[in-house]
Amino acid sequence: MNSGASASLPSNAVPYIFEKFNMVDDSQSSLPTSLFLLGYVVGPSIWSPLSETVGRRPILLYTFIVFFFFTLACALAPGWSTLLFFRFVCGCMGAAPQTVVGGVYADIFEARSRGRVMAIYMAAASFGPILGPIISGFTSEYGWRWTFWVELMIAGFTLVGLLFVPETFGPVLLRRRAAMLSKMSGRHISAPSSSIDTDLTTIFLRPLYMLISEPIIAATSIYVGIVYALVFFYFQAYPVIFPEVYGFSIQMTSLALIPLGIGACSTSLVAIYWDLKYETALSKKKSWAFPFSPEVHRLPISCLGGVTIPVSLFWLAWTATPSIHWIVPTLSGLLFGFGYQTIFTSLLTYVTDAYKIYSASALASSVIIRSILGAALPVAAKPMYASLGVGWATSLVGFVSVACVPIPYVLLWKGGWIREKSKFCQMLVKDELGGSPTGGEESHEQQREEC
Known about the structure:
Strand content: under 5%
Order of helices and strands: HHHHHHHHHHHHHHHHHHHH
CATH architecture: Up-down Bundle
Helix content: over 70%
């Protein structure tokens, strides 16, 4: 939540920052957010592979400490250029939980409970970008630096809890155990080898390689990236739509984002309900139209969410007029929040289930794509609304979201076949069979089906 809130934090503080630093070029108004998201592009290529080598805890803890101090630096920034640099560093550090937490959950939870945990995690994490504009909307009038002071307080509270997070990555725990036993026994004891231990070049290129070579990673990354960019598009669109059409203040405009957060949080309830329904049918071996698989377990709610996103965009586009009460376009945020969160929860949990110990690199690929799109699309928001108007500018991004609707349906149909051809899935089968105490035919088939 810290990372997400920080990403959108300056959105309502920029006018006050411009006034303080005597900025007149309005085209730079989106840079505090865009450079943070550019850090999201750089960070995952470092933190995700490292978490699969040195472990999850050092990456999560040390990057958050740096994030904490550079948030402090933002609050004390003496000029526009230094503020932008500090924001970029915050983005690099804030990318770590976006990619590593999925790997942590893959380490410690089985597939049965992983989806429920991911649903709760994604509900909290996705509310962060909604929280950022609300914080800046209500604190900036007392001084734009208060925006970052409030974020620093939240980060400090979070850091206390993070200190107690243990290491979860299996290969690292085995290496530590082997080192301890070697010291106790006086003879060399080595941990079991795994294909996850590779040279540094392979480690750092893995997210890019997976993005290119794995159709599941490419398709889900593009979809999640577009949806993520639309969230930040909203942060630029609302300050245009509601002040111009309805005369809202900055504070009222930030409150108009609350339905997005409510819609996003409600997704966890739907995801948990579907998970329980799936598990009940699985335990009773109840016949379904499709065989039980990770696709059926994770993707159906994203099929629903994919439809609600374009509906919400067209709803907003053609109801935001002075003749229609402001509550009508505001409520479209409920559908959008539900839709974008179902895409996040469903697709990213599906990727985590499919790639397990490689999930940090797989999620890094998603973070890179969505951060590029998230940095680019908001820059185009104000020119689009200036030239096309509210209706057609919002409809244009609605048409883009329509083009993505088939992706979860195709994965639901052909996802199992794609995973059978996946190099990484076959590596997982080999690793898991190597660690199986029996190695029997039943175990082999079970591991292959799970992958």
